[in-house]
Amino acid sequence: MTKTGSLLRVAACYLIGLLVAGAWLGWGPDTRWLWLDGLVADVLATLVVYAFSRRYGNSSFYDAYWSVLPPVLAAYWWASASPDVNDTRAWLVMVVILVWAVRLTANWVYAFPGLHHEDWRYPLLKDKAGRWEPLVDLVAIHLIPTFQVFLGMVPVYVAVTRTGRDVGWLDAVALVVGLAAVALELAADVQMHRFVRDRRPGEVMDRGLWGWSRHPNYFGEFGFWLALGLFGLAASPGSWWVLVGAVMMLAMFLGASIPMMEERSLERRPTYQDVVDRVPRFVPRPPRRATA
């Protein structure tokens, strides 16, 4: 299947998912909680994505859903909130989310070869599941990431629905952190794409941002979710629970995503051990000098 045909199928999948979610929000039962309405709609759309994943035997149908859903969910919450909500803060939040979503989705489109390809992590999970493979596919690959992103979006719900708090210095900090995080991710992705295009067999990436952090893209991604938490905190000072989503993202990156990437890199390119010895794992900082 060509890349264009694959992208059209993924787009159709997301369109159907959003239509199903919208139908539930428009004509389904009212839960009386705006956040819960959003969660149910999110899960319904995820189930549509899961159905496409099973139909085509490729769980990478889910990959771009990570970045497509947040701006839609944020816009729904804002549109459904009280007219007394601080629109300036809501616009600042939406700008950060939209810039992040466009960048991340565009990067996925650029790198996605087509539905003949599946993210290498998914077969690892499914092959170990045996007869429970459909359930592992549903829960581990589709539903858990959906709940993870939703948790990261909780401070956005607070920021675009909570009234009575003017925009202040913490909103400015959140805006700067969010845009800087997206810029860092963009720079890291561009550097990696150029490296992949020109690399020699066995060569490992340790240039630019990747010479200061082995995973600058994950560091930037964490910065984005932290920025959303700061917006929530600005709208509701003292509500430190709005940072739980960012903390969970950090735990996922440090406890699962990065270890899996590191193990795979070491298996495929033994010289990557030299990068591990010199380059910081997560937070960018000057690399250590190579020892003789």
The H-and-E topology, N to C, reads as HHHHHHHHHH
Strand content: under 5%
Helix content: over 70%
Overall strand count? 0
Please mark out the parts with pLDDT under 50 across 5 or more consecutive residues, or reply none. none
Count of domains: 1
| First-last Cα distance | 50 Å
Query: Could you say which overall geometry the principal axes of the C-alpha atoms support?
Result: globular
Number of helices: 10
Helix-and-strand structural type: mainly alpha
Biggest sheet descriptor: none
What is the averaged pLDDT score? 94
Rg from Cα: 20 Å
Describe it.
The protein has 292 residues and is mainly α. 35% of the residues are buried. Helix content is 72%, strand content 0%. The mean pLDDT is 94. The chain has helices at 3-27, 34-56, 65-80, 87-111, 121-129, 133-161, 169-198, 216-235, 244-268, 272-278. Helix 2 (34-56) packs antiparallel against helix 3, helix 6 (133-161) packs across helix 9 and helix 8 (216-235) runs antiparallel to helix 9 (244-268). It has ten helices and no strands. The protein has one domain.
